[in-house]
Amino acid sequence: MHILSEKFKNFLMSEEKISENEIQLSTRIVEDLGLDGIDAHYFIEAYAETFSIEVGDFDFYRYFNDETPVLLIIPAILFLFFRFLIWQLFLGKPVSLTTVPVTLAMLQQAIDDGVWNCARIESLAGTQVYPPPPKKPGWFSRIRNRT
Fold it and tell me: Which tens digits make up the pLDDT trace of 50-68?
C-alpha cells in the first residue's frame, strides 16, 4: 500500500484543520473525522479543486449522508419507520441505509489516478461495499406461500 503524499497531508492540516496524529491511511472521513453532510460537500469540493481530480463515477450519496432540515426531522423519521415496515417486514427486502466509508487511502488513490473510479479506489483502499443481507421472505410472502 502506498503512503499519503506531503501535499495531501498539508492540505488536510491547513485547509481542514485535521491534526497530524489523525492522518493515517485508514482514517475514515465520516466516522473518524466527523465530516458529513454539507461539511463533507465543501471538503470534497476543495479536495477535487486542489488536486485536479475528475469526478468520474463519484456519487456523493454513496459515501455521505444528506443533512435533513430541522422542520423535516419528524417526517423523515416517520418515512424511515414506514419504509422499514413495508420493505423489511412485509416484503422481506433489505433496507440499506448505510454508506460506503471513505478513507484517506481512497482519497490518495484518487490523487494518484487523477480520477475517481469507485471500483478501483474501493478495492485498493481495502474497503468493500456492504454486501446485501441474506434474503429472507417477508411477512406477506410467507403467508402467500403457505398454500
Answer: 999 998 888 888 888 776 5
User: How many other β-carbons are positioned within 10 Å of the β-carbon of residue 7?
Assistant: 11
Rounded Cα–Cα distance for residues 4 and 18 (Å): 14
Query: What are the tens digits of pLDDT across the range 76-130?
Result: 677 777 766 666 666 665 545 557 888 888 898 899 999 998 888 887 655 444 3
Cβ–Cβ < 8 Å for 12, 46:
no
Q: What is the pTM of this model?
A: 0.65
**What distances in angstroms separate CA 29 from CA 4, 138, 147, one per listed residue?**
15, 35, 50
List beta partners, residue 28. Answer: 103
Give the C-alpha separation, 39 to 67, whole Å. 10
CB of 13 closer than 8 Å to CB of 20:
yes
**Element containing residue 141 per DSSP (H, E):** helix 139-144
